[in-house]
Write a structure and sequence with these properties.
Chain lengths: 346, 291
């Protein structure tokens, strides 16, 4: 049975639907990311789970119990806010102890658990610091310790790393993942950063305009995007216009001068999506001309003008000779490296 | 940089602030120094002011219990007014801050509106409302059954505190409002998610953070109330004097300028000491919140 379940949850503000028909089952101990651009409804969904907003329709259940009937203060969820929302007039230890105090945990046990929580996030010795005297990364850790010390049934993270600089963010990602693995708390992360979602989560929920575009593992969402939105949002991608040719047997998928056996169940105009790193230069395939060749250390980035429009190709810097700018090339890829969707505009 | 240029750039700040500095010295420091000097001069019914150095006025203030009573009343009224504005103004600012856009600006206008009207006009308004035993306030309270016999408001400290509290309320609300603006908008949600009840959130999370705002508002309200003139003059009349009205009467009715100057100087010194003292106390106590 699902641990946390969202059943056709919707939220409306006036006439505006912010979240629509959101259904998701989260298993115990799972790390789920809500990924999408700002305004896609991911934070609203998180706030409905937290109880700061009430869903207009639908149900949210935790271990089968209706969560929306429980007051936010009684839900026992741990939340880390984007701004951290630490209590500035309390020391780090007092911040972490607050949730335990509200639960009437005896003083001795409280001190012990606060110390353990701060040690877990690598802040042993910072007990008596006030938040304003700590760096962004340290504040973030205090916020995490404060949320985890109450042993929450679910940990909710609202863009917790977005205020950190790139290097620190990467460090915190690794650490966050390790902590989550160690204590096994079911976690939901809201983020607009696809790298963060991919490196942290067991499954990603890609959202756009209040709707779920795709739910899948990071690999699934990256390699088999369910919609044009997902393929565009998760990393760079090339979309080529193609058609399924049924006049020949077996039926063929044709994009410019590239052709392959057609996948089953599709016909007519289609969009062929291929990731730039899956395209190679070959003797046959889409003919293209290299406009720009950019060296990026461990790989080369080629901007090409192909017969099906602009294309990006990424090649590993493996010491092999690479085509130069202005060269005419043929772009080719394996059929399993592409995803084919019926074209909406045709 | 050459020595001459260095000297010139060192002089530049003085040159640039000179106009304002001269105004400050001319209209504030010089009259203030003259007032202090005046307080040491002699005065007699028939001889007028004599520019000598004596401690007669200060001795009179120090020994005559009349003046002690006056100053105690002044500070009692100021403290009660400050307390009343804090108790009413802080929740007012908090509620205001939680309102949504349109209502917020409407009620902010209502709270700040009085600042646009002369203190005299506002206090006369209160005098009309209080107006003896048949005043509107007493009639209302009696018809509601809150009181059996009318409360004397005019010429009492009660009336003065109420009128002053109304006049001073905007300063308290604005000061607490500023402190509320510094609050993290998610902080109440954070406390709630940790299991805090609304009352606990206010007591443990909101109050400690807006306390510096309440206290700095209190300093403003206290010093303005203690030196207020128009409201005590109208509500208290000649019967119930405070330090400011006392100094005024010495200057303009008795024409004993030196004594009036001594009263004014003492009020100023006492206020400066209280304000500076409590300010440094607050800054030390709330160092972490101010940072």
């Amino acid at each position: 049975m699902a641990y946390l379940e969202l059943d056709r949850v919707a939220k409306q503000f006036g006439a505006q639907t912010v979240v629509d028909d959101f259904s998701l089952s989260v298993g115990k101990g799972e790390f789920i990311s809500f990924l999408g651009p700002s305004g896609c409804g991911k934070t609203t969904t998180l706030q409905m789970i937290a109880g700061f907003l009430d869903p207009t329709r639908g149900a949210i259940r935790l271990e089968g119990k209706d969560l929306t009937a429980i007051h936010p203060a009684k839900r026992g969820l741990g939340i880390v806010f984007q701004s951290y929302a630490l209590f500035p007039h309390m020391t780090a230890a007092e911040n972490v102890a607050f949730g335990l105090e509200m639960r009437n945990v005896p003083r001795n046990e409280r001190a012990e658990r606060v110390r353990a929580a701060l040690a877990m996030v690598g802040l042993a010795g910072y007990e008596d610091r006030h938040p304003r005297r700590m760096s962004g990364g340290q504040q973030q850790r205090v916020a995490l310790a404060r949320a985890l010390v109450i042993k929450p049934s679910v940990l909710l993270l609202d863009e917790p790393l977005s205020n950190l600089d790139a290097k620190l963010r990467e460090e915190m990602q690794i650490e966050l993942r390790q902590i989550q693995r160690t204590i096994g708390t079911t976690t939901i992360l809201v983020t607009h950063d696809q790298n963060e979602a991919m490196s942290l989560s067991d499954r990603i929920v890609v959202m756009s305009q209040g709707k779920i575009e795709q739910i899948g593992t990071p690999q699934e969402t990256y390699e088999k995007p369910a919609s044009a939105f997902v393929s565009q949002f998760l990393g760079k991608t090339n979309d080529f216009a193609g058609t399924i040719d049924r006049t020949v047997a077996p039926t063929q998928l044709v994009a410019g001068s590239w052709r392959a056996p057609a996948p089953a169940g599709l016909g007519g105009p289609v969009t062929v999506s291929v990731r730039p790193e899956r395209i190679g230069f070959g003797d046959t395939g889409l003919s293209a001309k290299i406009i720009a060749r950019i060296f990026q250390g461990n790989h080369w980035l080629f901007q090409c003008d192909s017969e099906c429009g602009p294309a990006i190709v990424i090649r590993q810097n493996d010491g092999q000779a690479q085509p130069a700018e202005g060269d005419a090339v043929r772009l080719t890829w394996r059929p399993e490296d592409m995803s084919v969707r019926a074209r909406a505009d045709a | 940089m050459s020595a001459a240029a260095e000297e010139r750039s060192a002089r530049a700040p003085w040159a640039l602030t000179a106009p304002a500095l001269m105004l400050f010295v001319g209209v504030l420091l010089i009259p203030l120094a003259m007032t202090v000097m005046l307080s040491f001069h002699d005065w007699g019914q028939y001889k007028g002011i004599e520019p000598v150095f004596i401690l007669k006025n200060w001795h009179e203030i120090a020994t005559d219990p009349y003046y002690a009573e006056m100053f105690w009343r002044t500070f009692r009224i100021a403290i009660l007014t400050t307390f009343l504005t804090a108790v009413l103004g802080a929740p007012e600012a908090y509620i205001l801050n939680r309102m949504s856009g349109r209502w917020k600006s409407f009620f902010l206008l209502i709270i700040l509106g009085p600042l646009l009207i002369s203190v005299v006009a506002r206090t006369l308004g209160w005098a009309l409302l209080f107006g003896g035993n048949n005043g509107l306030v007493n009639k209302l309270l009696m018809s509601l059954g809150a009181i059996r016999s009318p409360i004397p408001f005019m010429f009492t400290e009660t009336g003065m505190v109420i009128a002053l509290a109304h006049v001073m309320m905007p300063f308290m609300v604005l000061s607490v409002w500023a402190a509320l603006q510094r609050l993290d908008p998610q902080i109440e949600n954070a406390a709630m998610s940790l299991g805090a009840s609304p009352a606990t959130i206010i007591r443990r999370i909101i109050m400690p953070q807006i306390m510096p705002g309440v206290l700095s508002g209190a300093i403003i309200v206290f010093s303005l109330s203690a030196s207020a003139f128009a409201t005590p003059a109208i509500i208290g009349g000649r019967r119930l004097k405070v330090a400011a009205t006392l100094a005024y009467d010495e200057f303009l009715n008795t024409l004993n300028w030196p004594l009036g100057a001594a009263v004014a100087t003492l009020l100023l010194v006492a206020l400066v000491l209280i304000v500076v003292g409590s300010n440094s106390l607050i800054e030390r106590r709330y160092a972490e919140v101010f940072r």
